[in-house]
Specification:
This protein has 405 residues and is an alpha+beta fold. α3 runs antiparallel to α4 and α5 packs antiparallel against α6. Among the domains are: 138 residues, no CATH class; 126 residues, Heat Shock Protein 90 (2-Layer Sandwich), CATH 3.30.565. It is 64% helix and 9% strand. The protein has a five-stranded mixed β-sheet with strand order 1-2-3-5-4, with helices on one face.
C-alpha cells in the first residue's frame, strides 16, 4: 500500500471519530461553492433588490450554512437557527440563497435521523409549515404544482432521514442480539463441559469404587490364608488381577467412547488400538478421497510423545479436518503442520475455505461439542489451544502439547 493511500485511510479514520469536523468541512465546501453562484445570479438577472455583493447578506448566508457544523449534536437547535436566519434575510428583502436552501434541507434530514419520533416530528412540522408559508408569500404567482413539488421535497427529506434512523436501529438490534446469542452459546458450552465432567466423574467413581472394593476384600482374604492355604491365596490373587484388568478396561472404555457412546458402531471399535500420529498418513489419504486437498509438513526432530498426547494430537487433527469438510466448501485446501521442539509439540490445521465464526460439530442432539471436545482434550494434557479465523480467509486451529508430563 502506497504512503498516499495509507495517509488517506488514516485521515478518513480520523474524521470518523470527529463527526463535527466532518460537518464543518461539508458546510465550508457548500458555502465556498454556493455563495459565488448566489451573487453571480443576482448580479446578472438585473434584479433591483440585490445586484451587488452585500456584506450583511454574505454574513447571514455564512452563519446559516456553517450552523451545520453542530447538526448531529444539536439538530433541532440548528434547524431553528437556520429558519431564523432565512427569516432575517427575507425581512431584509434578500433573495433565497443556494447554500441557505441546501442547509435547510440538511437540517431537516438531521432532525429526522438524529432524534426520536416526537422531536423529529415536531421539527419536521415546523420546517414544513415555514417552507410552505415562504413559498406562498414569495413575490410572483407560483403554480400549484411548484408548491406541491417543493413541499414534497421537504417531506421526502424528512422521511429519508427517518427511514435511515430506523434502519440503523434495526442493525444495532441485530448486533445486540448476535452478542447475546454469542454469550448464550458460551454459557451453553460451559454448561456442556461441566455436565460432561460430572458424568465422567460419576462413572469413574462407580467403576473405581466397585472394583477397588473387590480387590481390597480379596487382598485381605489372601493375606489371611496365604500361610495355611496357598491354593486359595493364589485364587484370590487371580481374582484381584482379573478385577484390576476389568477396572482398567472399563475406565478406558469410559474415556474412549466419550461423546460417542450413542454411536451404534462404537462397540466394535472399543477394543481396537487407539490411533496416533503414526496413523496420520492413513487419515490424510482418507480425507483426500473426499476431494479435499491436504498437505502435511513436519518440522523439527520428530519425538515420540506420550500415548495420551499421541492420541489427543491425532484426534485434534481428525476433528479439525472434519470441520473443514463440513464448513470450508468443496474448493477449499487444508494444511497440517507438526512442529517438534525439545519441550513441546505444536499442531496446526488451516484451510482457505469460507470459514465459520464458530466450529460446530454435529453430534446428534448436542451440536457444538466438537469445540468443547477440542479444548477439553488439549487441556487434559496441559496444552494450549487457539481456534479462530485465519488471516487472508479460512479457519485455523493451533494446539501446543508439552512432550514432558
Amino acid at each position: 500500500m502506497s504512503p498516499r493511500i495509507r495517509g488517506l485511510h488514516a485521515f478518513r479514520a480520523w474524521l470518523q471519530v470527529r463527526p463535527q469536523v466532518t460537518d464543518a468541512l461539508i458546510a465550508a465546501g457548500l458555502l465556498l461553492v454556493g455563495l459565488p453562484q448566489h451573487y453571480l445570479q443576482d448580479a446578472s438577472d438585473g434584479s433591483p433588490r440585490f445586484t451587488d455583493p452585500d456584506l450583511v447578506n454574505g454574513l447571514l448566508v455564512a452563519a446559516v450554512t456553517m450552523a451545520l457544523t453542530f447538526r448531529q449534536r444539536y439538530p433541532v437547535t440548528v434547524l431553528l437557527f437556520i429558519i431564523a436566519g432565512e427569516i432575517a434575510m427575507a425581512v431584509r428583502d434578500y433573495p433565497p440563497s443556494i447554500p441557505g436552501v441546501v442547509a435547510f434541507l440538511v437540517a431537516v434530514y438531521s432532525v429526522a435521523v438524529h432524534r426520536g419520533l416526537a422531536h423529529s416530528a415536531l421539527g419536521g412540522m415546523v420546517a414544513f409549515v415555514y417552507f410552505f408559508v415562504t413559498l406562498v408569500a414569495m413575490p410572483g404567482h407560483l403554480s400549484l404544482i411548484v408548491i406541491v413539488t417543493n413541499c414534497a421535497l421537504v417531506a421526502g427529506v424528512w422521511v429519508l432521514g427517518r427511514n435511515l434512523r430506523l434502519r440503523r436501529a434495526y442493525f444495532a438490534e441485530l448486533e445486540h442480539r448476535a452478542a447475546r446469542l454469542e454469550r448464550a452459546r458460551g454459557t451453553d458450552a460451559r454448561a456442556a463441559r461441566i455436565e460432561e465432567r460430572s458424568r465422567i466423574a460419576r462413572e469413574l467413581h462407580d467403576v473405581v469404587a466397585h472394583h477397588v472394593s473387590v480387590m481390597t476384600v480379596q487382598a485381605g482374604a489372601a493375606r489371611r490364608i496365604i500361610d495355611r492355604d496357598a491354593g486359595s491365596a493364589r485364587e484370590a490373587m487371580s481374582t484381584i488381577e482379573e478385577v484390576g484388568r476389568t477396572a482398567l478396561s472399563e475406565m478406558r472404555r469410559i474415556v474412549g467412547v466419550l461423546r460417542t457412546d450413542r454411536d451404534a458402531e462404537s462397540a466394535g471399535r472399543e477394543l481396537a488400538p487407539q490411533p496416533g500420529l503414526g496413523d496420520l498418513g492413513e487419515l490424510l489419504d482418507h480425507v483426500r478421497e473426499t476431494g479435499l486437498a491436504v498437505q502435511l509438513w513436519i518440522e523439527g526432530e520428530a519425538r515420540t510423545p506420550s500415548p495420551g498426547v499421541d492420541v489427543a494430537a491425532f484426534r485434534l487433527i481428525q476433528e479439525a479436518l472434519t470441520n473443514t469438510l463440513k464448513h470450508a466448501g468443496s474448493q477449499a485446501r487444508a494444511w497440517v503442520r507438526l512442529y517438534y521442539t525439545d519441550a513441546d509439540l505444536t499442531v496446526e490445521i488451516e484451510d482457505d475455505g469460507r470459514g465459520t465464526a464458530t466450529i460446530m460439530a454435529d453430534n446428534g442432539d448436542n451440536p457444538g461439542h466438537g469445540l468443547v471436545g477440542m479444548y477439553e482434550r488439549v487441556a487434559l494434557y496441559g496444552g494450549e489451544l487457539r481456534i479462530g479465523p485465519r488471516v487472508g480467509g479460512g479457519f485455523g486451529v493451533r494446539a501446543r502439547f508439552p512432550l514432558e508430563a
